[in-house]
Structure formats: structure tokens, C-alpha cells
Design brief:
Blueprint (H helix, E strand, L loop, with lengths): L3 E6 L4 E8 L7 E2 L4 H5 L19 E4 L4 E4 L2 E2 H7 L2 H10 L5 H13 L8 H5 L7 H15 L9 H27 L12 H10 L10 H13 L7 H10 L5 H13 L6 H12 L5 H9 L20 H13 L7 H16 L1 H5 L6 H11 L7 H22 L21 H6 L11
Antiparallel strand pairs: 1-2, 2-3, 4-5, 5-6
Helix pairs in contact: 3-9, 3-18, 4-7, 6-7, 6-11, 7-8, 7-18, 9-14, 9-17, 9-18, 10-11, 10-18, 11-18, 12-17, 14-17
Bound molecules: carboxymethyl coenzyme *A.
Keywords: Acyltransferase, Transferase, Tricarboxylic acid cycle
Catalytic activity: oxaloacetate + acetyl-CoA + H2O = citrate + CoA + H(+)
GO cellular component, one term: cytoplasm
């Protein structure tokens, strides 16, 4: 049996054959690279719901089974047995590190965690209370100006350094901007602390005073970051790959990725969850909001529910739900918000509107509650997603670089606009006045 599919054009009876490609896991794909050449037609796939845009070895998702793997390792196994730093190494260096590799990796990231002091002046160019995502996007684009001489993207050693630099500086940029907005003194990275603990230290500490960071808080944040580390070809990763396909440098790819992630349908949802739970305010109001979510004429959506790929359960949400329950007393998660969240989750799991549309809690449903308990300001929730996701973006960018040929991402369209507007007779019939050259 031939491994192909046949497409028949019923208008003229012509048939065309396309190869089927098999991956190691997941659905096979139909290779339609020659479709336009052979048939003079494009495919139409709004939002790429049925399109594989690349080959990748990094992350596998089975949306029906609710499975997520980074380089073959199940996310719940990683969450139980490894730390975020191991996962960053796994994504960038393609293997889990041994003790020596982990220690060397930790040291390299620490040495790269400082930022050029001149970058501080960038913060003052923003008006008060600028959203931290806007600032982070600018800071990352700005980093390219400081490393102009180290941008040889064809040298794998150099681009690995660049990837580690970006991963290492992200927590410092985020914490520094927080300090700046609060008017607090900047707290520099502490080289004696681990990656995640150091971030909490830079956020909370004051000079010459003791800062209280409990191991359980570090574990909670570390797990949140690990769960966000990669998620195959989601909107922001596709953005990073798209910008990368033009041979633009990784700082601009990541900066563009931050822009894509900011939207409330993607990384902005964790901020949206908390705002929504606070707006609901009491368990007594839950039914009213559920009604709004189900109303076709109301644009309101339950934040933290639904996913393009997971049609069973988001495995990241499962890990976070048990982490949330484990932490509930230890880090003081807001009990009123928990009650509201529990009631929503119960209704959603029993109501036919949500069941029939496969709407389950996603990663953002519980990450917001955990981040709030860790006293991370709500406006910084999406920033936490970015800190977690940069290793994934850089792994995807490096994978793009390793391909034999990089094809610029350039989808086509179904044009439905006017076929012609510039015929003299059209102009004569219309009220359009001719512009004079003065108006140019
Ligand atoms: N609340 C109420 N109805 C919903 C929701 C929701 N959260 N999500 C989807 N629906 C309904 C939607 O109205 C539609 O109904 P109908 O078939 O009657 O028109 C149906 O479910 C399918 O929705 P869709 O928008 O076509 O699905 P999608 O796969 O394009 O969108 C989504 C996925 C995540 C953007 C969407 O579920 C959503 O907006 N969720 C809320 C925002 C959110 O939590 N985003 C975080 C995503 S997870 C983090 C990440 O990985 O980025």
C-alpha cells in the first residue's frame, strides 16, 4: 500500500497524490509542499488548526490523552523528579544534565545573570505603571545593542551562549523593573542562590536585611516555571520561529514572542484568571458569570478554561492543582478566591455546555492563584510565563537554525476583496475626487 493520499478535483476529475509523513508519535501529516505547484490551489486553514509548520524533536502533546513530554520525558515525571534548571538544560542541550553538568550550567547562568547598568535608563523612558510586558519586550530588543559583536548565528557555540544569556538575564530584567516601579533599591543577583530562589530574592530583598524565602515557595515557583518551559507550536513559539525564519536575530525573535504571549488568549490569561476571580468576588456570584460564559451574545469567557490542543485535560493544570492543594496552608493561598475557583471548576465539570466543547481548566487556572500567593504582582504574571518559556523559545530557534535550509514563513490567503477599482469608468461613476499633488 502506498503511503500517500489522493486529492481529486471534482470540477475536472483530475487527481493528485501527496505523500504521508509519519512522526515518532502523534498524527501523520500530509506533505502538501507541492500542492500549489501541482494544482494551482492553496489550502485554507484559519488559525492553523490542521497545519504542521515544522518538524520538531522538542515537545510532544497528545491533546486527546492530555499528555505533554519534553524531549520524551513526561511533564509529571519531570515535575516530581527534576528542577527548572534541569529542564532548561534538557531543552537547550538536548539532555538532562548529570551532577557535574548541572553545576557547570548553574555557574554559567549565574555569571550571565547581570545586566549592563546602562540598561537601567531604559526603565525611566516608560511612563509610570507601564505594563511590565511592554518594558520586557523593549529590554529584550535592547539587549541586541549590547551584544552586537556576539551575534554570529551560524556558530552553534555562539548561539548557545546567546540562548543561555537570554535565559539568565530574564529574571534580572523582570525583578529590576519591579524594583524600579516600586521605587525600591535594585537588588543584584546573589550568586549563592539557585535560579528560582535568586529571582524571589531580587524581588523581595532589601539591602542589609534578612529576606524570608521558604523552600516551599521556591518549589512552587520552580514548578510553575518548569510547566511553562515549552509547548510545541503555540502562538508565541510560532511567532519566534516566524521571525527567526527571516534570519532576524534571537533578541528580536524573543521580543516578538513576548508580544504574542501578552494576549489574554495566550500568556495573559493567568492575569485574567485572577482579575476575573476578584471581579466575581463571592461564590454567590458564580452562577451569574457561568451564565455569561454560556451566552452566545456575550463575549465573556471563563479565563483559565479551554485549550486549542487539549481536549481532555491540560496535564500542566493537573500538576498545578495538586501543587496548589499541597501549598494551600503553607503559603497562604487566598481562601475566598479558592472557594470561587473550586465552585467554577465543579460547575464546568458537570455542565453540558463545557463538557460538549471539551472545556477543562488549563495551566493558567491555578498558576495565577499560586503566583498571587507568592506575592508576585498580578501585572507580572505573564512575565513569569515569559521567564519560564524563554528556554523553549530558544530551543525552538536553535532547532530552526539546525535545519539544512530555512524556509521563510510566508502563508498565502484567500483574497475576497474587490477585483478591480481603478477603471476610469468606475471613477467617473463614483463620487471619488482626484487628489492633487499638493496633498502628497
Ligand atoms: N469560556 C466559555 N466558552 C468558551 C471558552 C471559555 N473559556 N473557551 C472556548 N469556549 C467556547 C467558544 O465560545 C466556542 O463555542 P461555540 O462552539 O459555541 O462557538 C467553543 O468553546 C470553541 O472555542 P474556540 O475559541 O473556537 O476554541 P479555540 O481552540 O480557538 O480557543 C482558547 C482556545 C484557549 C483561546 C479559548 O478556549 C479561550 O479563549 N480560553 C480562555 C482564555 C484562556 O484561558 N487562555 C489560556 C490558554 S492556555 C495557555 C497557553 O497555553 O497559552
Amino acid at each position: 500500500m502506498k503511503n500517500t493520499v489522493t486529492l481529486t478535483d471534482n470540477r475536472n476529475g483530475k487527481s493528485y497524490e501527496f505523500p504521508i509523513l509519519d512522526g515518532t508519535l502523534g498524527p501523520s501529516v500530509i506533505d502538501i509542499s507541492n500542492l500549489y505547484k501541482d494544482t494551482n490551489m492553496f489550502t485554507f486553514d484559519r488559525g492553523y488548526t490542521s497545519t504542521a509548520m515544522c518538524r520538531s524533536e522538542i515537545t510532544f502533546i497528545d491533546g486527546a490523552k492530555g499528555e505533554l513530554k519534553y524531549r520524551g520525558y513526561d511533564i509529571d515525571w519531570l515535575a516530581k523528579n527534576k528542577i527548572f534548571l534541569d529542564v532548561i538544560h534538557l531543552l537547550l542541550h538536548k539532555k538532562l544534565p548529570n551532577q557535574v553538568e548541572l553545576s557547570e550550567f548553574r555557574t554559567r547562568l549565574k555569571m550571565r545573570s547581570f545586566i549592563n547598568e546602562k540598561m537601567m535608563s531604559l526603565f525611566s523612558a516608560f511612563p509610570d505603571r507601564a505594563h511590565p510586558m511592554a518594558v520586557l519586550q523593549a529590554c529584550v530588543a535592547n539587549l541586541s545593542a549590547y551584544y552586537k559583536r556576539d551575534m554570529n548565528f551560524d556558530d552553534p557555540v555562539e548561539y548557545m551562549e546567546l540562548a543561555e544569556r537570554l535565559v539568565a538575564k530574564m529574571p534580572t530584567l523582570a525583578a529590576f523593573y519591579h524594583r524600579y516601579t516600586m521605587g525600591y533599591p535594585f537588588i543584584y543577583p546573589d550568586l549563592d542562590r539557585g535560579f528560582t530562589e535568586n529571582f524571589l530574592y531580587m524581588m523581595r530583598s532589601f539591602p542589609h536585611s534578612h529576606v524570608n524565602i521558604s523552600p516551599i515557595e521556591v518549589k512552587a515557583l520552580d514548578t510553575v516555571l518548569m510547566l511553562h518551559a515549552d509547548h510545541e507550536q503555540n502562538a508565541s513559539t510560532t511567532t519566534v520561529r516566524t521571525v527567526g525564519s527571516t534570519h532576524s536575530h534571537p533578541y528580536s525573535c524573543v521580543s516578538a514572542g513576548i508580544g504574542a504571549l501578552w494576549g489574554h488568549a495566550h500568556g495573559g490569561a493567568n492575569e485574567g484568571v485572577i482579575k476575573q476571580l476578584e471581579e466575581i468576588g463571592s461564590v454567590d456570584n458564580v452562577d451569574k458569570y457561568i451564565k455569561k460564559a454560556k451566552d452566545k451574545n456575550d463575549p465573556f469567557r471563563l479565563m483559565g478554561f479551554g485549550h486549542r490542543v487539549y481536549k481532555n485535560y491540560d496535564p500542566r493544570a493537573k500538576v498545578l492543582k495538586s501543587l496548589r492543594d499541597e501549598l494551600i496552608d503553607e503559603i497562604g493561598i487566598d481562601s475566598n478566591l479558592i472557594k470561587i475557583a473550586n465552585k467554577i471548576e465543579k460547575i464546568v465539570s458537570e455542565d453540558d455546555y463545557f463538557i460538549s466543547r471539551n472545556l477543562y481548566p488549563n495551566v493558567d487556572f491555578n498558576s495565577g492563584l499560586i503566583l498571587k500567593a507568592l506575592k508576585i504582582p498580578t501585572a507580572m504574571f505573564a512575565v513569569m510565563f515569559v521567564i519560564g518559556r524563554v528556554p523553549g523559545w530558544m530551543a525552538q530557534w536553535m532547532e530552526l537554525k539546525e535545519q539544512d535550509t530555512i524556509k521563510i514563513v510566508r502563508p498565502r490567503q484567500l483574497y475576497v476583496g474587490p477585483s478591480s477599482q481603478n477603471k476610469d469608468e468606475n471613477l467617473e461613476k463614483s463620487n471619488i475626487e482626484f487628489s492633487s499633488s499638493k496633498d502628497r
